[in-house]
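User: Sorry, what's this?
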Amino acid sequence: MSLTVVLLMDDLEEWSGTEVHLRRLVGRLDPAQITPVLAVLGRDGLAGEFTAATGAAVHGLNIQSTLSLEGARGAAAVARLLKQLSAGLLVTYHTAADLLGPVAGALAGVPVLSCRRDEGFTKKPVHVALQRPLNRLLTGMIVVSHKVRQAVRASEGYPSARCQVIWNGEDLDRFAPGPSGLRRELGIGPDVPLVASVSLLTPIKDHDTQLRAMELLAERMPDATLLIVGDGPERERLEALAAPLGQRVRFLGHRDDIPELLRGVDVLLQTSTSEGFSNTILQAMATALPVVVTAVGGNVELVSTKCGHLVDRRSPEEVARYLAQLLGSARARARMGTAGRARVEQYCSLPAMVERYTDAFQRGASHRFPGPSYP
């Protein structure tokens, strides 16, 4: 009999890291083993798209506040949904779900796993203080990297022995080396050194460091160009900050052709100040693209010195130096790109990730959690 797993998240309003991860995972679970159902506490504007992409039902609960009586109502609503669906497991994602999920699971008599995908930067001190006792109700945690496991241990005191590390996986056929029409589309010549940054435009991604690095890089490579891909609350401010750089920095907004975009550039740049396990870095490495990224979170586990450069947070001088090295050597880029592709083939295929989550869900439902961490 298939195990019904309810995946509880705060919002389903934009295609950021967790939402993309769930779309990939849920759409590939074997229905003979796992029947996934998504429950959304707050905004659920992408519910229709999610169901169309995955085939999974989405239940909107319309809970706008967690730290109030409405939060208690939300926990009760989740518990009712678990009973209604005869769910065998509840899995929580993000702050509000992490707080309400353990209570709902206890009310419904259903085991609960918390899935942690970042180092906890969204959790305020009040959330952490409340989370600590609630964590005692958990069967365990799935964490996206060893660094995230360490962060949960440090902030919430959660035992590392009750965590299972599962790296993200990617569609290695979709994200693979190949030709691209990007430069032709943008009117950029084949010899122009081209860097891409792909992420939401939010403070945690620290695009200021990227812009300062491009200023410094101009002294050595005046035609080097940065493509900033994505949208978000920082866009207007960043566009004003980048104005003196002219066409050397281009804001492309949201794009649906990320594989082709990555194939058309020379280096991926990411300067996040905190990171769980970056899908974007994984995708770039899958397309045989060398990376320059901050030494935070899961980046230090995925990116070896053979396939990219790790830099300190908020260090534009270091970023500019490594970009110059890579952009100036096609041989180094090819060597690192080949090594990156080999690394994700070894550790980060999508089928392997789905298999590991299937096993973790089954273990959680039968109180045999955790299984082996990987890698």
Notes: Residues 139 and 186 are 51 Å apart (CA to CA).
